[in-house]
Amino acid sequence: MSQAIKEAVGAKTEVKTYRNYIGGKWVPSRTGRTFESTNPAHKAEVLGVLQQSDMRDVDAAIEAASKAFAGWRRTPAPARGEIVLKAGIILEARKEELARLMTQEMGKVLKEARGDVQEAIDMAKYAAGFGRLPHGETVPSELRHKWAMTVRVPLGVVACITPWNFPMAIPSWKILPALMGGNTIVFKPASDTPIIATKLVEILEEAGLPSGVLNLVTGSGSEVGDPLVQDPRVAGISFTGSTAAGRQIAELAGRNLKRLGLELGGKNAIVVLDDADLPLAVDGALWAAFGTTGQRCTAASRLIVDKKVEKDFTDLLQERAAKMRVGDGLQPDTDMGPVINEAALKKVHEYTEIGKKEHARLVHGGDFAGDQGWFYRPTIFADGRKDMRMAQEEIFGPSTLVMPVNGLDEALEVANSTQYGLSMSIYTNDLRKAFHAMDEMQSGLVYVNAPTIGAEIQLPFGGVKNTGNGHREAGTVALDEFTEWKTIYVDYSGRLQRAQIDTALGE
Description:
Helices cover 36% and strands 22% of the residues. It is an alpha/beta fold. The chain starts with a helix and ends in a 16-residue tail after the last strand.
């Protein structure tokens, strides 16, 4: 039967099966089980079949990473950088192809998917430079004929456990600095976006990464993530996900005193004062609340607005939201794609019902937007109070709450009233108020006259309070999560010298 006839009768195209990557080979799971990755905009569309792995696959991946560590650790840092840079160049050449696949697998609109891939490109170029930057410092000794210095050393085998909302960018934040630090890796991506993860590993393989340095194992958190976290051969763990999951990982990792980097939830706020450029603030709120369908850890689900301008702000926000087109992210006229899966859709709607019960005023949305995919309309509530669940709990969907306040002091008190502290923003034309907010906002990221989303890879990313455990990703500190400091003393005096004792001047 010809291809044309097959298409005419609606014959299905064979779905590709993707395998784990362990020790430089693409291998099936030892379980013999698989799962499907589907398109959230067309929930019946299967994009690929993945391995449903278990602890046996994790064990093999850790063993491969352990064997590869000695060789990779001794590889000169500039040579590591050449491989990472080459991966970035390949990513750049395939940006459009990868972005379209990401939109199909994750749902975000195509222009945002391009941005996700671009972030990985930028991180590759940035991280590659670590190979030729200082990895320590020389420090004067208090003793004569004694030399003192510090150097970075890798942790060993590290686990990178990543979410689905930025399936290319966030893995690049973790994997590329970890490689540049001289570590070997076991990579466990989210089960909602394993194909994009596989493509990133394929590109690093093509760039020349030696066998065993990077290993990919797909599967559930309980069957893959937990064994990976608990294995004593894994020296460090980098995890991005929910605060609840982060707590569990911290408990498991803490028993073996593992190095742990956690990037967790957020309940981010935009403060709009009465002197703000209101159209600009609405632009920022619309992008921060509904960009990536609200599925960002930095999404603005709280809009704290001075009562003097709250009605005008809310009316303009509702007018703009009403014009947003919800649909398949590959369509050029789509403004907002689906949420990731059915569970996420139900959760968003549950919070709509919670908002109604808490007597928040539904201004826009609050309902489903089609049955072909996991679509929900952009949702705006008004008359919010800081004690509402909607104002305290992470929704992770296209839902935001307008909260009226009297002036800057109350705005800052409300902004700081959650367990989270990832990203906050203030819109004002008063320089003094802006600097006061910069001081008082309990947040790892602060924006002035810009939304809560828009981090750049050359600056540290992370939050305070229950948003994480103090580590930062990206920026000049990117290697801190994946390296230890070693302090070295060289005494060439030819005699015993005692620090803090033999330090008299003139000796």
